[in-house]
Design goal:
The chain is mostly helical. It is built from six helices and two strands. It has helices at residues 8-31, 53-71, 81-99, 114-138, 146-179, 195-211, and strands at residues 50-51, 112-113. A two-stranded antiparallel sheet has the order 1-2. The longest helix has 34 residues, at 146-179. Keywords: Membrane, Transmembrane, Transmembrane helix. It comes from Stephania cephalantha.
Length: 212
């Protein structure tokens, strides 16, 4: 597959995309102090037409798999064991979020507004582009010795696996409760009280592990 050259235009696009991600993250943090995201138990028909949560998750998360598989092989370091190790963790997480988790959701789950699904799709499009180009092309692997990289990678891998296990376990607990048809409830026992918070913690740990 033909590699993407690191032209001035390509590097400019990468830098502007990264800047946009940072700025939009700060803006979203501010906006969400006053606005409740309308999905799950907070679903609101005021946000327009809605689709099943399974279809919404497939739509939202799909760029993280397909765009990554399209862009990553075109990078300068795409065949490096280091870049392959890093992108494998990213893909492992999003393969689960795209093709496993959505099909575990019970049919009774609240629908998701298409507008929200498209916003999430846009974020994952941007994030996948940045992750793919960074790991396969713009990271300077020669700046760090081989042993130093692998020591950090193994430490990050442990954090990633811990976070993903927390994430998946909490997902399963909440999905099981929803499937009982008694509305939204907080799991109890087994350290799962507040599973919604644990899901966020698990995803944060997975992300930190991937960045280590």
């Amino acid at each position: 597959m033909k590699m993407m050259e690191s032209s001035d235009d390509d590097e400019r696009l990468y830098n502007y995309s990264l800047l946009f991600l940072y700025v939009s993250g700060i803006c979203n943090l501010f906006i969400l102090q006053f606005l409740q995201a309308p999905y799950g138990k907070h679903f609101s028909p005021r946000w327009g037409p809605a689709i099943s949560p399974t279809l919404a998750w497939l739509l939202m998360e799909s760029p993280s798999v397909f765009l990554t598989l399209l862009l990553f092989p075109r990078g300068l370091h795409s065949s490096s064991p280091r870049s392959l190790s890093l992108i494998s963790l990213f893909l492992l997480h999003y393969l689960h979020r795209t093709f496993v988790y959505p099909f575990r959701l019970p049919p009774s789950s609240n629908k998701t507004p298409i507008s929200i699904a498209l916003l999430a799709f846009s974020f994952n499009l941007l994030n996948s582009y940045l992750q793919s180009r960074s790991i396969s092309h713009y990271v300077d692997y020669d700046a760090e010795g081989g042993m130093g990289f692998w020591a950090r990678f193994l430490g990050g891998l442990l954090v990633f696996l811990w976070g993903m296990s927390v994430n998946v376990r909490s997902d399963l607990a909440l999905v099981r409760l929803r499937g009982e048809g008694r509305g939204y409830r907080v799991p109890r026992g087994g350290g799962l009280r507040g599973s919604a918070v644990l899901i966020i913690l698990g995803r944060l740990l997975s992300g930190l592990g991937g960045l280590s």
